[in-house]
Amino acid sequence: MNVIRHTEADFHRQLRKLAAASSLFDPGVEERTRAILDDVRGRGDAAVLDLTARFDGARLRADQLAVTQAELVTASLKADGSLRAAVAEAEKNVTLFARKSLQRSWCARNSHGAGVGEKFDPFQRVGVTFLAARRRWSRRP
To answer: What per-residue string of b and e applies to 10-19 under the rule 16 or more CB within 10 Å gives b?
Structure first.
């Protein structure tokens, strides 16, 4: 995790660097992505089927969307050894990264006997209005 403190001398430079234009903040990409998500929210599986045909060229029916446990097992058994090894390695790497990324709550008593510590509670949902804020940051020294 990259932490930027407002008390650091180069805070505004670091913030501008994070807010620099990239495809992540491309309004066209955001607009197209939002349209896709809105379509799926509004039309559900019908939208997924249309979008799958449009982007992947696959013509599916609604009953083909769900993957059964039997289909997963069959596909797994058909996979060759190198694919299984790659998936196992990916799982191991993702799990390790996730474990290392966890911030753990802790508490202790300091030399004066006061209780100190940190408590980490995950957010259920986070949103940032970045584009408007980016304009404000770009005017800073």
So the answer is: eebeebeeeb
Tokens of 9: 């001398």
- Is 108 in contact with 117 (CB distance < 8 Å)? yes
pLDDT in tens, 84-100: 999 999 999 999 998 88
* Among the ranges given (10-19, 44-53, 85-94, 99-108), the one the predictor scored with the smallest mean pLDDT: 10-19
Residue 5, SS3 per DSSP = coil
User: Using a CB cutoff of 8 Å and minimum separation of 24, what contacts does 121-130 make?
Assistant: 130/19, 130/25
Mean pLDDT of 5-26: 77
Report the mean per-residue pLDDT for the chain.
82
Q: If we measure between CA atoms, which residue out of 19, 31, 29 comes closest to residue 135? A: 19
**Separation CA 56–CA 50 (nearest Å):** 10
How far apart CA 126 and CA 113 sit, in angstroms, is: 36
Distance (Å, whole) CA 52 – CA 92: 30
